[in-house]
């Protein structure tokens, strides 16, 4: 295959860092979509750095730690916001709640905590320094122009990510323990995200063939995301049920909603991996 469609990894990395930096002022204004966009840019960046390690410079230890801190903090803000919207939607589906005001107060606190964390992150100099440090380490070096590799090498890196995904899928399929299965599905979700974003970063190198890997990965990511969100919401509801003023029946109905959502997502997921599995990149992209 040679060097057909040499992958513009430097351009992809530059785009994610630019996107992240552009979102910081909006994050400072507690814009939840800006938090989402910045978190997504970081996920894409970290996926590429992990998948193509050795092909591109590695972040220095200090910079890696700061990137990890920012990703975790953005995740905490976004997760609280998403959970709040999810519970709010559940409350709006029924009119027969016995203690809706108490639950809504808990939801409002989730939203407030998400906004506080976002505002703090967006306005902190540490966040800006993190982006600058990553840019300097990854793009302001002589080798930045050499982030181009034979497509066969790129396909092999994606193959390794795909194999990690298969291991996670096998672990969840072979375990009847709900906690272990949920953990394996969550790992599969992270694995499929990394595979998807890493494939998107070099999609031009493989022309339309890349969509054969990317599209089914998107479908699995969506279903695994719904499954994980239902698990997290169920855990939050069980903790909420211990709070004063929460009606036990309300908590049970809310949790039942999440159980149904989780089971539906898991059933759709099983159908998806049977009917539309992510193909092995070595086979799908080697031509």
Descriptive report:
The protein has 287 residues and is mainly α. The chain has 2 domains: 1-100 and 112-147, Four Helix Bundle (Hemerythrin (Met), subunit A) (Up-down Bundle), CATH 1.20.120; 150-287. The protein has helices at residues 9-28, 32-51, 61-92, 100-123, 125-138, 151-173, 178-201, 211-240, 248-275, 281-284. Helix 1 (9-28) packs across helix 4 and helix 2 packs across helix 3 (61-92). It is flat and about 65 Å long. The model is unreliable at 1-7 (pLDDT under 50).
**E-strand count:** 0
For the residues shown, what is the average pLDDT? 92
Strand portion: under 5%
**Helix content range:** over 70%
Radius of gyration: 21 Å
Biggest β-sheet: count, sense, barrel?
A: none
Order of helices and strands: HHHHHHHHHH
SSE class: mainly alpha
Task: Give the helix tally.
Answer: 10
Distance between the termini: 7 Å
Low-confidence stretches: 1-7
Give the overall shape.
Answer: flat
Q: What count of domains describes the coordinates?
A: 2
């Amino acid at each position: 295959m040679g060097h057909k469609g040499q992958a513009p990894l430097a351009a992809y990395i530059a785009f994610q860092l630019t996107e992240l930096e552009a979102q910081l002022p909006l994050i400072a204004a507690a814009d939840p979509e800006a938090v989402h966009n910045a978190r997504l840019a970081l996920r894409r960046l970290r996926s590429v750095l992990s998948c193509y390690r050795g092909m591109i410079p590695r972040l220095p230890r200090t910079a890696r730690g700061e990137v990890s801190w920012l990703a975790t903090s953005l995740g905490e803000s976004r997760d609280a916001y998403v959970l709040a919207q999810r519970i709010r939607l559940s409350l709006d589906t029924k009119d027969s709640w016995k203690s809706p005001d108490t639950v809504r107060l808990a939801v409002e606190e989730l939203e407030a905590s998400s906004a506080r964390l976002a505002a703090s992150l967006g306005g902190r100099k540490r966040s800006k320094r993190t982006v600058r440090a990553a840019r300097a380490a990854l793009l302001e070096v002589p080798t930045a122009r050499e982030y181009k590799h034979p497509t066969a090498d790129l396909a092999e890196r994606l193959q390794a990510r795909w194999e990690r995904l298969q291991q996670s899928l096998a672990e969840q399929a072979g375990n009847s323990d709900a906690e272990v299965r949920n953990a394996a599905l969550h790992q599969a979700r992270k694995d499929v995200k990394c595979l998807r974003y890493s494939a998107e970063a070099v999609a031009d190198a493989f022309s339309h063939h890349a969509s054969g890997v990317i599209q089914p990965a998107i479908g699995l990511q969506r279903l695994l995301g719904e499954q994980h969100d239902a698990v997290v919401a169920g855990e939050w509801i069980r903790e909420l049920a211990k709070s004063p003023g929460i009606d036990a029946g309300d908590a049970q109905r809310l949790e039942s909603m999440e159980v149904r959502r989780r089971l539906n997502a898991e059933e759709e997921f099983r159908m998806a991996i049977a009917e539309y599995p992510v193909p092995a990149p070595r086979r799908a992209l080697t031509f």
